[in-house]
Amino acid sequence: MKVSFNKEDLSYAVNVVHSVVNPQSSLPILSNILISAEISGEVEFIASDLETCVRCIINGDVADAGKLTVPASKLLDIVRVVPEDAVEMEQEENRLKIQCQNSTYRLAVMPPEEFPSWPEIEPVTSFKLSQEGLKRAIGKILFAIPLREPRRVLLGGLFRLKDSRLICVGTDGKRLGYVETEVSDITGEAENESIVPQKVLSELSHILSAEGEVVIHFGERQIAFDLGRVKIITSKIEGAYPEFQLVIPKEFKHIVKVSRDVLLEAIRRAAIISEEKTHAVMFKFQPEQALLSAMSYDVGSYEGTMPVEYKGEEVEVAFNHKFLQEIVRAVDEDEVLIKIKSNEEPIIFNGEGKTDYFFLVMPITLIEPQEASLSEEEEEEVEAEEDEELEPEDEDEEMS
Amino acid sequence: MDAFFVSVEQAHNPRLKRKPVIVAGRPEQRHGVVCSASYEARVYGIRAGMPLGVARRLCPSAIIVPTDHTRYLQYSEKIEAILQEFSPLVEMASLDEAFVDLTGTERLHKSSPLGIAHKIYKRIKGELSLPCSIGIASSRVVAKVAAQCAKPQGILQVLPGKERNFLRPLRVEKMPGVGSRTAEILNTYGLTTLGDLQDIGEGWLTKLFGVTGRELYLYACGIDHSPVLAEGEPPKSVSRSYTFPRDLYGEEEIKSAISYLCELVAVELRRLNARATILSLCVRYADFETLSRSMKLSVPVDDEIALLHSAIQLFNRMYDRRRAVRLLGVGAGGLLYHCWQLDMFNSLPDQHRRQRLHRSVDHIKRRHGFNAIVHGTTFAYICPEKVSS
C-alpha cells in the first residue's frame, strides 16, 4: 500500500473511527484500525468493538492499493501532532511508514485478515432525515441516558418510527428527554423501533454536521446510520423500553412561565450550597415570584428569589440542580414553561408555544421527619381502631 | 450485662436460676453453637462460640435453651430506659453493653459516681432481675476494661490518675480491639501485659501496627478522648449479620435467611426514616472463607422486597453450592435522610400503598414482636417445619 493524504482529511477519518476502539479489548486486533486503499482513490478506515463498527471513506492519492491494520491510539497521536501538509503512508513489510515533512514514523502492523468483517444489515425499515434534525434530536435526549444502570434498556435512546415521524426518547428514570422529528423516504415497515446504545448516539452527535442527510436502517438485531462518507452499524439493545407515555402527566395544577436565562442563573446561584448527595435545590412558586433555597448541613444555606409568571396557589418542589441545568440548557425558546401536577410526580419542562419536544424531571421528595413512622396521634388512632372494630370505610381506602 | 442471654432466660423462667444453662442454636440440631453460658456452666469450661456438641460433652447436665432475639431486644430497650433516667448521654454499644456519661450529674443525684452505679445496679437487678457489672472511670476504654474486671455482678471504680496503674498488670487481650491475632503478634515480641505496651512506647507500636498501634498505646495508658454519643450522628449504613445456629445448606434455605436479614435491615431503615442507595451482602462459608459484594441501587429503597431482589442478584454471583453457609450479612449503605430523588417508573399509587403497608406492618412488629408478621420467604426461615408440612 502506498497512499498520500491531505492532513485534514486523514485527521477527520482517524478521529471518527477511533472513538469505538476499545483499548482494553481482549482481542488485540480490535485496538487497531483497518485501512484499505483502492486504486480508484478511495481509502476506507474501519474500527470495531464487535458491538459497533464505524467506517469512514476519504480520498487520497493511491499509488499502490493495499490493506493493513495499525494501532488506533498511536495513529491518532501521530495525526494530532504532524504539521498541516501532505501525509504519506507506505507499507514496508510488517511496518507502516508514515511521513510528513521532516518526521518519519514506522508503526507495527497486524494482518488485515484477522480484523472482523464488515457486518451486512438487512433493513426491515429505512428512512431519511436531515443530519441537522438528527443532531438536534440527539442533543435533547443524550444527557438523560445513563452510562451505568441496572435496567439495561435505559442504556440507550429509543428511536421509534410512527406516523412518518421519528420519536426519540432518553431517560434514566429521573429525567427524560422526548423529541419528534419529520422523516422522509420510508421503505419497509412503517412502524418500528430500536434502542440505540448511548455510545453510538454520543459519537453521532460529534460526527453529524449542519448539512446533508442521514439514512437510518432498522434491521432485526442491528441499526445502521449512513451519513455518506461515514457509516455506523451497531447492535440494538434488546428488550422492551419502559412505557414512558404512562408517566407523562396529562393535567396540571400549576403552570409557571420563566425566562430561560433567569432560571439558569438562579439555579447556578443556589447550586453552590446544595447538598452533595442529592444536589437538591428547593423552589417555592408563589404569584409573580419563586423562592429558591438550598441547604447543606456542614456548609450553610442559600435563599434567593427570581421573577416568574404565575398566578396559582403556592407550590413547593425540590430538584436535583444538575438535572435541571442540563434540561434548561436544552430548551430552544427564550421562555420556559414548568408544568406541575404534584411535587411527587414528573414535572414537564418545555419551551413556550407548540414545541415538538419536552423534558420530564422527577422531583426530590420533601418528607418531614415525622411522616415515615406513626406519629403519636396516629398511634392513638391505631390503638383506638384495634380496640373497636375496623371501620368499613377504612378498609375501602386500603383497597383502593 | 453478665451472661446476658442466659440471664434473660433465667429472669423469664426462674427455674433455670443457679443451674448450668446454655443459650444456643436450636438444640434439636447438632450444629448449634453456644451463644451464652451461665456462670455455673462456665465452671465446666463452656464458653460462647463453642460447638454445642463439645459443650454437652463437658457438661451433660446443662440445660440448653434456644435463642430468642426478640426477647433480648425487649430487655435491652428496658435497660436503656433505666439508664436514661440517670443521664441523657446513654450510648448502647450493643444489646448488652452501654456507656453512660455521668459528668455533672452528682449534684442531681446527690451521690458520687460510685453511689449512682449502686443505684443503677439495684434498679436493673430489682426491676428486670438481671445481673450486671459496672466499671467507672474517666474514659470509655478504662470504664469498659473495669466493667470486664468487675464481672460477675461487681462494680469497679478506677480513680482519676490511677488508670495507668490499674491497666499495668492486665493481659493485652483484656484491651478492647485486641483480638487473638493481635495478641499473638504482641506475644511473639514478649509483650503480654498492658504494662509492657506502656513501656515499649508509642513509636514502636506505630511502626508495627500503623495508626492502630498509636491508638493501642494510648488505650494501654488509659487515654481515650472519644465522647459518649447519645443518638449522635445519623448512621451512614445499617447492617445485620447473623452466624446461624447451624450451617445452612441449599439455595432455598439460604435465600430465606437472606430475606430475614433484608427484613431486619428494612425495618431499621424505616425507623431511621432513611433510604439506602448501596446494598452489600456478606457470606461466610463453613470453612470460614468470607466473601462480600456490593452494588449500587438504581432507586433509593427502604423496602425489604427491593433489598431482597438485589441481595439475591449479589448472592447468585458469589454462591458456591458445594459449601455450607455459616454466616450471612446484609448491609444498606449510602443512606439518604428525608430527601431523595424519585424515579418515574416506580408508580406513585403503588408507593403510597406500600408505605401504608409498611407503617402497619412495622406497628405490628413493634407491638407484638418482629416475628409476629413476616414475609412468606422469611417465614420459611423462621418456621421451616411449618413450611415443609
Question: How are the secondary structure elements laid out?
Answer:
The complex is a heterodimer of chains A (400) and B (389).
Chain A: E1 2-6, H1 7-18, E2 32-37, E3 42-48, E4 52-59, E5 61-64, E6 66-71, H2 72-81, E7 86-92, E8 95-100, E9 103-108, E10 125-130, H3 131-141, E11 156-162, E12 165-171, E13 175-182, E14 184-188, E15 192-197, H4 198-207, E16 213-218, E17 222-226, E18 230-235, E19 254-259, H5 260-271, E20 280-286, E21 289-296, E22 300-307, E23 315-320, H6 321-329, E24 335-340, E25 347-351, E26 357-361, H7 376-387, H8 392-399
Antiparallel strand pairs in A: 1-5, 1-7, 2-3, 2-6, 3-4, 4-18, 7-8, 8-9, 10-14, 10-16, 11-12, 11-15, 12-13, 13-26, 16-17, 17-18, 19-24, 20-21, 20-23, 21-22, 24-25, 25-26
Chain B: H1 4-12, E1 21-24, E2 34-37, H2 39-42, H3 52-58, E3 63-66, H4 69-84, E4 90-94, E5 97-100, H5 106-109, H6 113-128, E6 134-136, H7 140-150, E7 155-157, H8 163-167, H9 180-188, H10 194-200, H11 202-209, H12 211-220, E8 238-248, H13 251-272, E9 274-285, E10 290-301, H14 304-318, E11 325-333, E12 336-337, H15 348-368, H16 376-382, H17 384-388
